[in-house]
Amino acid sequence: MTDSGGAGRTLVTGIGVVAPTGIGTGEHWSATLAGRSGIGRISRFDPAGYPVRHAGELRGFAPNEHLPGRLLVETDLWTQTGLVASHEALADAALDPASVPEFEMAVLTSSSSGGVEFGQREMASLWQHGPRISAYQSIAWFYAATTGQLAIRHGMRGSCGVVCAEQAGGLDTFGQARRFTAGDTRVVVAGGTDAPLCPYSLVAQLTNGRLSAEPDPRRAYLPFDEAASGYLPGEGGAILVAESARAHRERGAAHSYGEVAGHAAGMDPRPGSGRPPALARVIRGALADAGLGPGDIDVVFADAAGSPDLDLLEAQAIGEVFGAGAVPVTAPKTLAGRLYGGGAALDVATALLALRDGVIPHTAGTERLAPGCDLDLVRTAPRETALTTALVLARGHGGFTSALVLRKTEPDGTRQGDLR
Q1: Count of domains forming the chain
Q2: Is residue 194's pLDDT more than 60?
Q3: Contacting residues for 356 by C-beta, under 8 A, at least 6 apart
Q4: The pLDDT value given to residue 417
Q5: Average pLDDT along the chain
Q6: Are residues 267 and 297 in the same domain?
Q7: Is a pLDDT exceeding 90 seen at residue 122?
Q8: Residue ranges of the Ketosynthase family 3 (KS3) domain (predicted)?
């Protein structure tokens, strides 16, 4: 089967990354393939009094080098990372927003915690100095702040929104972008970022009981490993440009990473209900939406929670759908930590780069698979192989579950033949 002209198809044409593994897509990809970790001791505040003392920080990121001073005053670091990543993504797509009708451009971002560092700073000011807080407080820490700032910055006045589904939200933005581009929307800026590294936010995260207190940062986040003890948080994420295939063709663009081929989302059942987790069902839903079978998937980018019970559930779901060890699995997020609203978007960016270059990045750190985790987990070094499709998985605290199928395209957006 050949491409039928692109009706209804959604292409990813630009990638922007601001992550612990690199400021910029090239730096992130180089670090990922080299296994160069962005995880270290928290430096933004003294973590000595907290059980978790390591995280994936944005070291060397200077927002003032990228954004005007006015935005630095009005926004939290979480929004600043999204703004910088969006500029890179639009430049990568060679797309000038001024060339597109403003009501035919949309913005969809994922956020887990909002502008917590901004909020803590203003609450501390209120406590110490009385009623003297920034006029931007109510905006800067609101979940939709990044979406709003991106829409204003780039003149995008079409449908805009924010998804609050923790890790899973990053995938849901692309599922929604696919629905938007099936209508009158030509361009969607989609993805997510988060910046949850301040004392207020860290204390809130500790309540889920899933963070690792392992003192050695190299051993603190080991998904699917027999020594898994939880995960480490991180900041940043990725913003991508998605376009309808029609819009991509009409503007004469010659650059496309891949197609958003399928998406499904669901919720885990209430604890104690006796019903199975949603992941296997959601995976099957995404494959069906893409018109593909399990044998058509070349690599799975795992959610990789880092907790033994959740890792086992994910391994069992992957085995249930694909068969034990039947498909390569990877979790390069061990180099950055779990970025919450930005994590799955970064996985999407990494998966598209893997499709482009024909290489599966490895899961750094994990050495000995835990009992029951019968996976073909890519470890030790990247694996070069022909890749046409990738499945990205994400789960969020509270039961949010999402799966996204990506399919490699030619630079002009046409498909590379039929997989079925």
Answers
A1: 2
A2: yes
A3: 257, 258, 408
A4: 56
A5: 93
A6: yes
A7: no
A8: 7-408
Same domain, yes or no: 167 and 91: yes
pLDDT (0 to 100) of residue 1: 23
Q: What are phi and psi of 108, to 5 degrees?
A: -135, 120
Residue 399 has pLDDT above 50, yes or no: yes
pLDDT per residue as tens digits for the range 20-54: 999 999 999 999 999 999 999 999 999 999 999 99
| β-bridge partners, 406 | 260, 390
Q: How confident is the model at residue 2 (pLDDT cuts 50, 70, 90)?
A: very low
Residue 5 resides in a domain: no
Instruction: Tell me the residue type at 211.
Output: L
Residue type, position 145, single letter:
A
Q: Is the same domain home to 211 and 360?
A: no
Domain coverage including residue 27: 10-250
Place of tokens 């957006």: 413
Residues facing 391 on adjacent strands: 300, 405
Angle, in degrees to the nearest 10, between helices 116-129 and 199-206: 120
Q: Which of 413, 347, 357 is nearest to 387 (CA)?
A: 357
Q: How far, rounded to the nearest angstrom, does the alpha carbon of residue 210 sit from its chain's CA centroid?
A: 19
Q: What is the pLDDT of residues 281-324, one digit of tens each?
A: 999 999 999 999 999 999 999 999 999 999 999 999 999 999 99
The better pLDDT of the pair 170, 135 is held by: 170
Dihedral, 299, 303, 307, 309 alpha carbons, nearest 10: -80
Over 60: is that where the pLDDT of 3 sits?
no
